[in-house]
């Protein structure tokens, strides 16, 4: 492939971005260990399983200030088949915690929608903790055009 | 600064029906990450807790972190066993509590 002017500029920008990122892991953005610790804290150390929980988020968010997200957990919300709480994390935000939803038998179904901020392109993680202690996870990558956490 | 919350609850439902509730409140949700024009950090001021109760019983609640957008919006479901009142509360970092109530009739 011939090197166009645009491609050269993109490569240069990419090369410049790498040392910049290496300078501030943890400083401006959350470290991976923080996210893992929060997940372990919520799940009580259990390994999250796939399934049951569905996280809906846009593939591309033009404005990181308001990104609509929905979670839906397949559950009868009766007896033992009950969702206790759902934790939302964003692994590339300065602080990964987004929200924790608490459901009850009066919720009828374990589904909720809200709007969140995303500082940059990153993964949004949703964890559901069931009444019996099992934990389910879903993850979506959201591409962000304009970051939403201010300068 | 916060104005009256807006809540959408159906007027009527059949007994045991699961309804959808939508809530919106005006709040800037200052994240604590931003700086003013002199470079000083702007202190965090967000709504950190939202709850919904039906006739005094908890239905749904949420712990909010600064990553929730300004003017927090929630959509969730609730089971309606009988006629009654939904009560919604939002708790601000500064201790203020905003609330709203909506009746529903079971036919």
From TrEMBL, chain A:
Residues 42-149 form the Ig-like SoxY domain. Gene3D superfamilies: SoxY domain (2.60.40.2470). Pfam families: SoxY (PF13501). The keyword Signal applies. Keywords: Signal. NCBIfam families: SoxY_true_GGCGG (TIGR04488). This is Thiosulfate oxidation carrier protein SoxY. It comes from Aquibium carbonis.
UniProtKB/TrEMBL annotation, chain B:
Pfam families: SoxZ. InterPro entries: Ig-like_fold (IPR013783), Ig_E-set (IPR014756), SoxZ (IPR030995), SoxZ_dom (IPR014880). SUPFAM superfamilies: E set domains (SSF81296). Residues 8-101 form the Sulphur oxidation protein SoxZ domain. This is Thiosulfate oxidation carrier complex protein SoxZ. It comes from Aquibium carbonis.
